[in-house]
Amino acid sequence: MKKIWSVRLILGLACLSFIAGCAQPDEDTAALQQKVKTEKKKLNLVYVEWSSEVASTHVVKAVLQEKLGYEVETIPVSAAAMWQALASGAADAMVAAWLPTMHKEYMEKVKDKIDDLGPNLEGTRVGLVVPSYVEINSIEELKENADLFENRIIGIDPGAGLMIATEKVIAEYGLTGFELMEGSGATMTAALDAAIKEQRPVIVTGWTPHWKFFKWDLKYLDDPKKIYGEAEFINTIARKGLKADSPEAYAFLDKFEWTPADMQKVMFMNQKDGADPYETAKQWISQNEEKVDSWLH
User: Fold this and answer.
1) Domain check: are 106 and 131 in the same one?
2) Residue 254 CB partners (closer than 8 Å, separation 6+)
3) Within 10 Å of residue 264's Cβ, how many Cβ atoms?
């Protein structure tokens, strides 16, 4: 009997302590709750340093920070590292998955280790781009005209899906007279700018959306073999577990969707001297409140 009363007494005291604690949490408890809340509000986004992905990633960062109160770190990496970071859980999300062609190989390797939230932008395109004054209109015509382009195709960062596809184009179309030049989005547009100023023929690896189509009169070369694919789209990818850890952020990422015109406007704004991608993103958000609200509700 004494044992039963002892157990009841202990339980009664525990309940009183719990009730008192719930009614008026001490400062340490409140501080701990705030710490946990703050920690859950930290996210990191990975992206490739293409002007398109700089634009989209900073718009997403600005919404997460300015509208949802998250602290967001953006980390530029190579395409391969971007996918691996999501698959390993080292990064939380990205909005830069170009599918079904450019990032096909990366997706196939990690598709069971990530959450694919679907397209955030549709209507993209990739391929070989030349100034409109160049008389050649198809990739098939390049084989006999390598010297016209100084035997070079100006590419972007090594390992990018576009570069992998272009290597296949060179092989499939027999363009052995061409060398694919590695570089970055910035070096590609610099080469394009220099050639256009002198009205010289030049070929670059290109994609839409991109601000270069606003600045210059350009065209894609026809790809009869469809090696670059046709309609492309950009997907949002999250790490496994993000939905449980940060449901509010996950819900926004799942709803985030805009148009090529939206993206190209932000990209073009980013080309102004002294432009800060984050400040540009905040400016675009302030001009498109209705669209942004649709992502959050």
Assistant:
1) no
2) 117, 118, 236
3) 20
- Check whether residue 196 and residue 210 sit in a common domain: yes
Indicate whether 227 belongs to any domain.
no
Domain around 157: 125-220
Q: Residue 287 is part of a domain; what is its CATH number? A: 3.40.190.10
Q: Which helix (H) or strand (E) holds 137?
A: none
Q: How far is CA 28 from CA 16, 54, 206, 287, in A?
A: 19, 41, 56, 42
Q: Which of 190, 220, 250 is the last residue of a domain?
A: 220
User: CA-to-CA distance for 42 and 25, rounded, in angstroms?
Assistant: 25
3-state helix, strand, coil in the chain (%, to 5): 50, 20, 30
Residue the block writes with tokens 């590695």: 182
253: tokens are 């990422």
Look up residue 150 and give its DSSP letter.
T
How many domains, in total, are found in the chain?
A: 2
- Rounded CA gap, 9 and 200, in Å? 91
- Same structural domain, 75 and 135: no
Same domain, 100 and 50: yes
Indicate the DSSP class of residue 157: S
- Kindly provide the b/e burial profile for residues 23-45, where b requires at least 16 CB atoms within 10 angstroms of the residue's own CB: eeeeeeeeeeeeeeeeeebebbb
- Dist. CA 124–CA 283, nearest whole Å: 24
The whole-model pTM stands at 0.69
- DSSP assignment of 195-262 equals HHHTT----EEEEES-THHHHS-EEEPB-TT-TT-SSEEEEEEEETTHHHH-HHHHHHHHH----HHH
Q: Is residue 61 located within the same domain as residue 113?
A: yes
CATH of residue 146: 3.40.190.100
Residues 116-173 pLDDT 10s: 999 999 988 899 999 999 999 999 999 999 999 999 999 999 988 899 999 999 999 9
Q: Which two tokens stand for residue 136?
A: 């050649």
